Amino acid sequence: MYSVSIDQLESLQRILIDAATYAKDIGEQEDSYQFIRSELMRDVVLKELIPDSIRASRDLGQFRALMQNEGGYKDRRDVIWKSMQALFEKLESGSTAPHAARTSVVLEKFIGEEVQRNWDKALGRAHDDPEGAITMARTLLELVCKHILDEKSEGPIDDELPKLYASAARLLNLAPNQHSEQSLKQILQGCTSVVQGLGTLRNKEGDAHGHVKIYRPKARHAELAVNLAGGMALFLVRTLNDD
Q1: Cα distance between residue 148 and residue 168, in whole Å
Q2: To 10 degrees, what angle do helices 73-83 and 85-93 make?
Q3: How far apart are CA 169 and CA 164, in angstroms?
Q4: Nearest alpha carbon to residue 234 among 99, 132, 61, 120
Q5: I need a surface site. Which of 23, 32, 87, 166 has the fewest CB within 10 A?
Q6: 3-state DSSP assignment of residue 137
C-alpha cells in the first residue's frame, strides 16, 4: 500500500489549482495540503515522483508564489496537471507492489533506463511467460554487476553471473571472506547462494540455452526468481551509492 490514495491525490490537485488560481482562501486548505504532502514525502516510492513545486513548497503560500511564474490561470492548471501525471499513473497502475515499485525507481535513478526496463519486463512476464521472466531476472543482475564493475573501473568483465557477482561483491566489501562477524558472513553467503541459484535456475529451466530444462517452471518459480533478483539488485545499488 502507498501512503496516499487516489482520492487524496485528486484532493491535493484541486487544492493546488485553487491556490494557483486564487479560487479559495489558502488558509482553509493549508492543513490538508501539509498532511498529504507529508504523506507523499514519507513514501519511499512516491517521493521520487513528487513535482519539484510541491517538494519546494512547505506551505500553500510558497506554492502560490512559485506558480506566479507560470503564466495565466490556464497555464498554471496545465502545469499542475502535467506535473502530477506520474503520481497518478503510479497509483492507478495498481499492478506493482511497493517493493517492486521502489526497485524500479531506484534502478532507473542510479543506473539507467535499460536496467529499469529489464526489471519491469521481468515483472510483467512472471505470470504469462515464466521462462522468459527467469531469463530477465538473471539478465537484470548481470547488468547491475557490470555497472558496478564499470563504475569501479574493474575489468575485464566475465559474462558468467556467479563470477560477475563475486567481482562486484568484492569491490563493495560484500564477499563473505571479507568479514569476521559470523552472522554477517552467513547473510553474505546467503546472497552468494541466491545468485548462484538464479544462474542454475535459468540454466536448467530458463530459455537462455535452447530451452534445455528439467521441467517447465511455473509462475511461482518465476516470481521467486524475479523477487530475489530485484532484492539483490536493490541491495547492490544501495551499497554502491553508499560507498
Answers
A1: 6
A2: 40
A3: 9
A4: 99
A5: 23
A6: helix
Q: Which amino acid is at 235?
A: F
Radius of gyration of the chain (CA): 22
Name which of 215, 236, 233, 242 is nearest 138 in CA terms.
233
Cell output for 173: 566489501
Q: pLDDT per residue over 100-158, tens digit each?
A: 666 766 776 666 667 767 777 777 677 778 888 888 888 888 888 988 998 888 766 66
CA distance 101 to 116: 10
60 near 33, Cβ under 8 Å? yes
Q: What is the mean pLDDT of the chain?
A: 83
CA 88 to chain CA centroid, Å, is 16
Hey, which bits of 40-120 come out as E strands?
none
How far is it, in rounded angstroms, from Cα 158 to Cα 164?
6
Q: Please, are residues 221 and 130 in contact by the beta-carbon 8 Å criterion?
A: yes
Q: Among 136, 127, 124, 188, which residue's Cα sits nearest to residue 161? A: 136
Cell numbers for 114, please give them: 535499460
DSSP state of 158: P
Q: Which CATH class is domain 98-242?
A: mainly alpha
**Residue 192 Cα distances to 2, 159, 178, 198, 225, angstroms:** 32, 16, 13, 10, 14
Which stretch of DSSP H or E encloses residue 238? helix 219-242
Q: What is the DSSP letter of 242?
A: H
Residue type, 166: A
pLDDT band at 96 (very low <50, low <70, confident <90, very high): very low
Give the integer Cα–Cα distance in Å for 31 and 26: 10
Q: Residue type at 34?
A: Q
